[in-house]
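Possible regression after last week's pipeline update?

I re-ran a chain I had predicted before the update to compare outputs. Posting the input and the new output here so someone can diff against the archived version. Not blocking, just want to make sure nothing changed silently.
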Amino acid sequence: MLSVETRHAVHPAQAKEMGTAELRAHFLARDMFRDGEIRLIHTHYDRFVMGGAVPAGGSLTLETVAETGTERFLDRREMGIVNIGDTGTVRCDGKGYEMARGDVLYLGKGSGAVSFEGEGRFYITSAPDHAAFPSRLITPADCKEVRLGEPASSNQRVIKQFIHPQVMESCQLILGYTSLAEGSVWNTMPSYVHDRRMEAYLYWDMEEEARVLHLMGEPQETRHLFVANEEGALSPPWSIHSGAGIGRYSFIWAMAGDNIDFTDMDFVKPGEMR
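New output (post-update):
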């Protein structure tokens, strides 16, 4: 079963006037992981797609998505998949990729139908693609690690870069995930915006009762979302995307836009935020 939700782009002036329910409706990604279903959110931020596939021991196939206007979903798109569950298999273009928890699979333009099998919980990201690159399975052993922050500022963390220029080639999709050290709570601090790219987060590896206070909005007009495990947040180019969590958590970040320069950021000092 396939379901697709469309999210239209929001102007920052409109976001300033939104209440809690409206903010959550536009920017919180919920209920993406249901047994036996593929559930996608098709956004108008750089036509980025995020969602989940949970075969629950069976098999699910993603092929045609009417919202893209192409015969097959990957005819003019690339895809990044992260397995956040038990071991499962993704099949595409005549090949099978067994994925353990934390593995990342990149599928290039023109890869055809994609099937999900086994006990995996597959997080799906996708962006338009105008140049085909080879598909590749990237394990945590293959990624590039960057360590940032310090215990004194409660933001010690490890950034693992998977679909990233220092690891492999892609068209415009960049993806990795960040894990907080024991006792650290802040992610992406100091905060920043990158007007050339949108970004999406998926929070995972959290206890059921834990929450992350995800900060968003323009730096001088911040808003917030309370986010649970396996829920995500859409971050427009004009928005910051920082957060503080209760207990252990990690988050998958994915970006699409004008460039693939991970360091292309406009930082905002804590004292400048409101």
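Follow-up from reviewer: compared with the archived run. The chain has one domain: 2-272. Marking as no regression found.
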